[in-house]
Amino acid sequence: MIYLDNCATTKPDKEVVEVMMKALTDDFANPSSLHSFGHRVEKEIDVARKNAANLIGAQAEEIYFTSGGTESNNIAVHGAIEKNKRRGKKIITSAIEHASIDDQFKHYKERGYEVVYLDVDETGAADIEKFKEVMDEDTILVSLIYVHNELGTVNRVKEIFEIAKAINKDVFCHVDGVQAVGKIPVDVKDLGCHTFSFSSHKIYGPKGMGALYKRKDVNINSLVIGGGQEKGLRSGTENVPGILGFGKACELTKRDLDKRLAHAKEIKEYLLKKFEENLEDYKINTPEYSTDFIVSLSILDIRAEVLLHYLEGDEIYISTASACTSNGTHKSTTLEQIGLSDKYAEGTIRICTSKDTSREDIDIFVEKLIKYVDEIRKIMR
User: Fold this and answer.
1) Same-domain status, 281 and 370
2) Beta strand pairing status for 294-299 and 282-284?
3) Which of 60, 64, 135, 181 has its CA at 20 to 30 Å from residue 365's CA atom?
């Protein structure tokens, strides 16, 4: 099997699985229990929290465990808007956010909020000049994706937040960092954000786990009221196996990040060289200022979903768009926003490599890709 859909999810690391199995079979106590067994598990969660904090340049007390990136985004956005609703009703975001952000703003737009969607350039980056025009003292929230899930584009969020705060020092700044963590170096203090969301299963950890960074001087209301876990921000008995697995994934990602980034760069360069040597009539949509783990490829005169099914017959797995929303039935808003023509858009696939992707994997993938592209073109042309 050759798995090149690592933006959708990653294979859990063996060490992560071992930690989770121990939590399921041995360390199964409720960390809220008063006895020593519960206290021991609570201490293990503390270690996981430190590992998550270290990965993004935060303090342990600023990390709150959630069920994933979607919940983290919801807590941050809803919390920020509810906290600041008396100050204004203007929100700024980009036109190509993940659904867990975009759908929330559709909800608030229906409730009478003004939502300004920043256009993006041909690389998928938010238009900074446009931001300068629309940012004002009535803006209560700026929320931006850091690394785009389809293109790999890295948004200049630090620069945008600096502009925002120069105009309105009280504006709330949120980052959807789900595709950034593990794919580029992240330092939340340097970014200047109030909240930052990230996810476990994107960094070789378990699904159903994520975290929200909330700067320690920031207060937002919880979406869930209950037992007071996670300092009241996210009540409910802790998912101990998930948290400990996530913590281990964070530890390994921090330890191996430089090596993983160098490997991704090498693999991407090799992949692009193979395309240049073997493929005709195609476009690379991923810009130079991007993560090396993501390549968006548009091929003329094919249908991406047909190519996907050809490849899966050989146990080669890719994606046609964001796996969080894509079922192959709609055109990507992202591709429309960057100005890609329909004839290229319908042939767009996303290739997401991992720490384990090899040159041999790329050789086999490109060989099969070329074969099936030729077959599909004979039918379509």
Assistant:
1) yes
2) antiparallel
3) 181
pLDDT on residue 330: 60
Judge if 243 and 269 occupy the same domain. Answer: no
Cα distance between residue 200 and residue 184, in whole Å:
15
The residue segments making up the domain with residue 229 are 14-253
Q: In the predicted model, is pLDDT for residue 279 greater than 50? A: yes
Mean local confidence (pLDDT), 33-62: 95
Give Dmax (Cα) for the chain: 71
Which residues are catalytic, by number? 324
Q: What burial letters (b/e) apply to 45-81, b meaning 16+ CB within 10 Å? A: beebbbbbbbbbebeeebbbbbbbbbbbbbbbbbbbb
Residue 315 reports pLDDT greater than 60: yes
Total domains present in the chain: 2
Return the bridge partners of 92, or none.
Answer: 116, 142
Cα 236 to the center of its chain, rounded Å: 24
CA 96/CA 122 separation, integer angstroms: 12
As a whole number, mean pLDDT of residues 214-239 equals 82
Q: Is the pLDDT of residue 223 over 80?
A: no
217 and 73 part of one domain = yes
CA separation for the pair 67, 76 (Å, rounded): 14
Mapping DSSP to helix (H, G, I), strand (E, B) and coil, where does residue 210 land? strand
Determine the angle formed by the axes of helices 99-110 and 69-84, rounding to 10 degrees: 30
Residues 6+ apart with CB under 8 A from 167: 135, 136, 137, 139
User: Would you say the pTM of this structure is higher than 0.90?
Assistant: yes
- Residue 286's domain is classified under what CATH number? 3.90.1150.10
The answer on 248 and 161 residing in a single domain is yes
- Indicate whether 208 pLDDT > 50: yes
